[in-house]
Amino acid sequence: MVKLSIDGRETSASEGSTILDAAAGLGIKIPTLCALKDLNIIGSCRVCLVQVEGEEAPCAACNTPVREGMEVRTDTPQVVAMRRANVEALLDSHRSECTSCARVDTCALRKLAADFAVGESTCDMPAKGAWNEDFPLIRDSSKCIKCMRCVAFCKKVQHCAVWEPSGSGTGASVAVKDGLDISEAGCALCGQCITHCPTGALTARSDIDKVLDALLDPEVMTVVQVAPAVRAAWGEGVKLSREQATPGRMASALRALGFDRVFDTDFAADLTIMEEGSEFLEFVKSDKPRPMFTSCCPGWVRFAKLHHPEIVPQLSSAKSPHQMMGALVKNTLREAAEAGGKKRIFCVSVMPCVAKKYECDVPELSTEGGRDVDAVLTVREFDRMLRMFSVDCAALEETDFDSPLGLSTGAATIFGRTGGVMEAALRTAVSILEGAPASFEACDCTAATPEHPWMEKELSAAGLTVRIAVASGLGNTEKLLNALESGEVAYDFVEIMACPGGCVGGGGQPIRFNRELAKERTAVLDKLDAEDSLRMSHDNPDIQKLYKTCLEKPLSHVAHEWLHTNQEE
Ligand code: HC0
Ligand code: SF4
Question: Where are the transmembrane segments (predicted)?
Fold first, then answer.
């Protein structure tokens, strides 16, 4: 037997066997196209490339025999980039006719091309037509089947009416309203048209290449954060059951992609409660116009700015947890990066959201050193990268997020569903006001469902009574705004999430055609919250430490610099 290591795992394999055989013995998947065991091991397709320590050139795993002491890497960004280039080269000389091909469901090249996000259209129509490729929402008219689902959803559910039917008869199609550029059409970027499109005519801009470039750059420290609602859905795209797709396995999956630090947006959600909660306690004592609105959903903030600018001064000044995490990463990790020989930090986030791709570009959300989040991947892009890197997710051990920006509470986890931000805020606000832990039942906002325009409740603590409301979906939001404007209702604090059900139903989540999965994913988050030993944001010991060592107290000068913004700019 020959002893060797693959991806840092020791193994032994019989003399004369190949790296491919030894990797299979460890359950490590290496893609292949040409290999046919014992019959054809010529290494011609080059998609099974691996790197052997000490050797300059990569080699084909299928026809390289194992050697004593060999150290093999199958999972580095360099290996993935080479495999990807080879799949692309194969496609260059392959007539792709996927929709009518007899092998559409079983073609191994098509599967690899999809996993590596490469391939060319064979349709004569111009791809995409004229489109603003910088915008986070991409429309490819050559893939539109004129079903009008996007038109209906955008108008009837989200009240944005960005899309309209155009032409008639055989020339019927869909266009951006009034012939506008998409960036000027009032699109909130909720991404609901994407998740309700039956084909690939509507997609989110892919930022995978940007992230791969950073992972390949030895001078860059790569940091990733992952949003609350991702833990409820990431397994769907890599065929994990809900039981298998745990947060711990998700942290390991992110490490398998090569990120240097793996942090949890949930930590910053706890921080948001401290900042936004403190802001609200000051607000209720003031005579400012009611209500104060949450500002953590960029789809909602964009909708407010584009469609209801009059309420923008009432948005909380707290940045979203996503941007707070970016600010903490860029402002507190610089020394650690330099000590590790890295010249800059590249901060990536994995989000259930398309609007977050826009949020990280908003100049007012940067801190001193420049932009705080460099690239946003949707859950679909994350899943695709896992397939690209051939990560066997089911086999991953569970690991913790990195410290100190990785520890969180159940209150942060429920941010990912409608009512969760409000519920988390109430748990902390009531506890602080009464000097004793709040009752979870009293703070429960789960009655906020996508089926009712909004939920409302009144809560009293320490002689203070607050009227709160929660809405998700922009059509429901508009109904609530109209009722506020007409004086039919009055509230002190309102939570809005642009997507029906909140981020669990986000426009960047995995797509299952004709299935609305927000409720199922909400149950995952609620279970994680119920099982958490910490369920109130102010009990997070790492948040307490952060205030002691760095931020002093909520709403301090440094907290304002890093964690707040002027929404009116
Ligand atoms: Fe959400 Fe968030 S809860 S908006 O839906 O507040 O995307 O999951 O990351 O930032 O935390 C999305 C999800 C987040 C933010 C958090 C909030
Ligand atoms: Fe993004 Fe969540 Fe807002 Fe939808 S509800 S736009 S997923 S932040």
Answer: none
